[in-house]
Amino acid sequence: MSKLKSISILLSHPIYAVVPAAGIGARMGSDTPKQYLTINDIAIIEYALTPLLADERIKMVIVSLGADDQWFQQLAIAQHPKLKAVIGGAQRADSVLAALDAIDDDGVVLVHDAARPCLTKQDIDLLIDNASMESGAIVGSLVRDTMKRVTSEGIIESTVSREFLYHALTPQMFPINRLKQTMIDALAQGVNVTDEASAMEWAQMPIKMLNGRSDNIKVTRPEDLQLAEVFLQGQGKINQSQEKS
Predict the structure, then answer these.
(1) Residue 234, Cβ neighbours under 10 Å: how many?
(2) Which secondary-structure segment (H or E) carries 83?
């Protein structure tokens, strides 16, 4: 199938976005879930949602929240007309499924991490231009460092070739109904569904790995906040005058 034909098939279907945000981010060592920590007085999840909500091709953005979430409704972005909030689950896969249940449509979905504040229109365009109803796609970043495999005791066992190795990033884009059913089936079989691609890999669906931007980092540890701020400044989402005001 040609690229142009793939694009036309994709754009003939409605496009949705899902952002699982029910996690607590224990590794951040904060009482506040990491997606609600702020950079320049703006919550990480607000940065993550903004490019999705701004994209006219995306019909709706569904956020999966924790049952006891007390932060989201305090954000101005929570009132956006394209945004819908649902209650997620204990695991990422549960939260994604809860959001997919709220979509009564046969289209495609981009799933994006709430703790990735540096998403750009460039990566969204990359996915929409290259995914199709027959082949899902994700953005990734080529591994640059020497990779080591270690034992359970932390002793280096071997050096792993980094050729053809990628860091899997988000968004990840798949047909809604196929993703939903595959995730249900994979979980029922005890598959460790760490991201949407892992479920689709289990179902042997062809998935394109696209070269996304390496600044699309996930805030997982305290030092990631500073790095994300630097990247957001570089993207023009924070400027020096705002930072000093």
Answers:
(1) 11
(2) strand 83-87
User: Mind spelling out the 3-state secondary structure of 104-159?
Assistant: CCCCEEEECCCCCCCCCHHHHHHHHHHCCCCCEEEEEEECCCCEEEECCCCCEEEE
Write the pLDDT tens digit of every residue in 35-83: 999 999 999 999 999 999 999 999 999 999 999 999 999 999 999 999 9
The 10s digit of each residue's pLDDT in 189-222 is 999 999 999 999 999 999 999 999 999 999 999 9
Least Cα distance to 215 among 203, 229, 205, 202 occurs for 229
Pick one of 1.20.120.920, 3.30.565.10, 3.90.550.10, 1.10.540.10 as the CATH number of 3-232.
3.90.550.10
Six-digit token string for 137: 């796609």
3-state DSSP assignment of residue 3: helix
What angle, 0 to 180 degrees and rounded to 10, lies between the N-to-C axes of helices 44-54 and 121-130? 50
User: What are the tokens at 215?
Assistant: 């600044």
Tokens of 127: 């996915």
Question: How much is the pTM?
Answer: 0.90
